[in-house]
Amino acid sequence: NKMASYSHRDRSGIYSFSSRPRAVEDRSRTLPPEKSRPMYGNIMFDRRVVRGNTYSQHFRPSTAQPDPAEIRREQVSKQRTSARRRAREQLLQPTTPEPVQGRKHMDVQTELYLEELSHVVVTADMECQSDAFLDRPPTPLFIPAKSGKDVETQIEEGELFDFDVEVQPLLEVLVGKTMEQSMLEVMEEEELASLRAQQKAFKVLRNMEQAEVQRLQEQERRRREERERRIMQQREALRKEKETVEKIAARAYTQQSLVDLLPTVFNSLRTHGYFYDPVERDIETNFIPWLMEEVHKNLEKRETARKLLDGRTNTTRLCFLF
């Protein structure tokens, strides 16, 4: 039962290291009290952490050596920036449009005074053949260097746990919990079934009670309507009876009053001239006024004749006197 750490090289020549699991020793018992607490480093005091604006340009310290790869990257970035700037300037410069079909562009002097172009740039073409690309060799495998010390642990007989003995309480707990959970689930299902049955019975009872309540309400409503209808009929009968009594009393009072009222009214109407004889009224309204007018005219004629006769008589008398 001896367990130890070991290291070896496999057939491919790769170094590998493996160690069996072991208990972590408690260093707090071996270290002094002031060093038993673990020390945590503050990242803000690390020189590798950049402080300030991360978008600003970082200046390399004067003592640091420039990195060739970084210098090359900066040069490449500058070249790309200048190439983009030149391409942008070329795109922004005004260019002559393409010639139409059948024509071509020619260089023409636009100066006021013509001059001979005698300067000719000599150009030549040259070629150079480069070597073919070689295949890159395979990257060698990384073999870490061995570090640390090998540790071994001696385990005596009986120190390791016996699976059959140690697993029994765990198995009992798992089985007990499973059985308990199963029993709880079964009891919960039975309780839910009982609750559903009670709810169903309660719903049936409630529906029956609601139906009975509705029946009683409908019966009470019919009774109330019948009572109101009977009360209205009784009130209508009393009203008609009272109206009939009042009519009879009014008729008797009217008959008793009209016994003496009728002759009095007729006499008053006759006195005021509402009841008259048509012949008498015609004589009074037409004949007598006409007769009076004619008598008045005759009297006026007679009066006039008499006055005229008296005037002639006086004249005759005067004549006789002369």
UniProtKB/TrEMBL annotation:
Major place of residence: cytoplasm
Any one Gene Ontology cellular component term annotated for this protein: cilium
Subcellular location: Cytoplasm, Cytoskeleton, Flagellum axoneme
Keyword set includes Cytoplasm: yes
Residue ranges the record marks as coiled coil: 206-251
PANTHER family: FLAGELLAR RADIAL SPOKE PROTEIN 3, RADIAL SPOKE HEAD PROTEIN 3 HOMOLOG
Similarity remark: Belongs to the flagellar radial spoke RSP3 family.
Protein name: Radial spoke head protein 3 homolog B-like
